[in-house]
């Protein structure tokens, strides 16, 4: 079973977009099957086999979650974030402002899905390997 400390050690190595692929590979080796990042407070829930889960603490006071989705702005913010033009917390705030409650990384499917509070998929990206 993986621990939050193991995940943190792997995450601390991520400095740029290309580092994300190595991070995912390390998570796979640990047995992480996926994780959800919640935009309102940036806490993360990592999950694995047999219902194993670990949770991070909230990272900031809650951001307001928009009740309507702005997919074009989400895509624009995402492209800028992936290009290194914003940090993690800024992107979480931008995603919340676009109506995204969380994003789910599915390591088994190698996808990242941006979801509303009602769990409706807004955007699905393939994770490069």
UniProtKB/TrEMBL annotation:
UniProt keywords, alphabetically: Viral envelope protein, Virion
Gene3D superfamilies reported in the protein's UniProt record: YdfO-like
SUPFAM superfamilies: YdfO-like (SSF160419)
Pfam name, any one: DUF1398
Protein name (database record): Phage envelope protein
Species whose genome carries this gene: Flavobacterium crassostreae
């Amino acid at each position: 079973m993986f621990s939050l400390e193991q995940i943190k050690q792997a995450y601390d190595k991520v400095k740029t977009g290309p580092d994300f692929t190595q991070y995912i590979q390390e998570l796979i080796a640990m047995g992480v099957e996926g994780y959800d990042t919640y935009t309102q407070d940036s806490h993360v829930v990592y999950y694995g086999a047999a219902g194993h889960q670990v949770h991070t603490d909230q990272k900031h006071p809650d951001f307001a979650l928009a009740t309507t989705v702005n997919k074009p702005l989400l895509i624009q913010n995402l492209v800028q974030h992936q290009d290194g033009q914003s940090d993690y917390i800024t992107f979480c705030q931008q995603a919340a402002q676009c109506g995204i409650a969380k994003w789910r990384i599915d390591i088994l499917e190698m996808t990242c899905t941006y979801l509303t509070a009602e769990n409706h998929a807004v955007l699905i990206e393939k994770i490069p390997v």
